[in-house]
Amino acid sequence: MPENKPPSLADRNCVPCKGGIPPLKGEMLQQYQNQLAGDWVTVDEQRLEKTYKFKNFRQALDFTVQVGELAENVNHHPDIFLAWGQVKLEIWTHKIGGLSESDFILAAKADRLFENREG
Length: 119
Fold this sequence. Notes:
The chain is an alpha+beta fold. It has helices at residues 26-33, 57-74, 101-115, and strands at residues 41-43, 47-53, 79-83, 86-91. A hairpin with a 3-residue loop joins β1 and β2.
């Protein structure tokens, strides 16, 4: 009988945070971190950061637009920093001043966009 695995983070849905819940810390935070690609960094247990590299400005700009559209579609918005050949994302849940499950879901979805891009 096949093992029932939970869906990957990228296949799950972000859930809007209304506040009043504690941010992820310690072991729970690490469990989510382990499900992301290795390039994500957790800063002070408060936010996720990753810089994506591109061949040129156009590719970085296109990815920025894709992440922006993703953020609007899931109603969860990262800080996006665009520079020549790179895009940096910073993700956290503002209402709780730290990280929630939805932050890791958005990070995984951004990674999927990067993996599936053309060029």
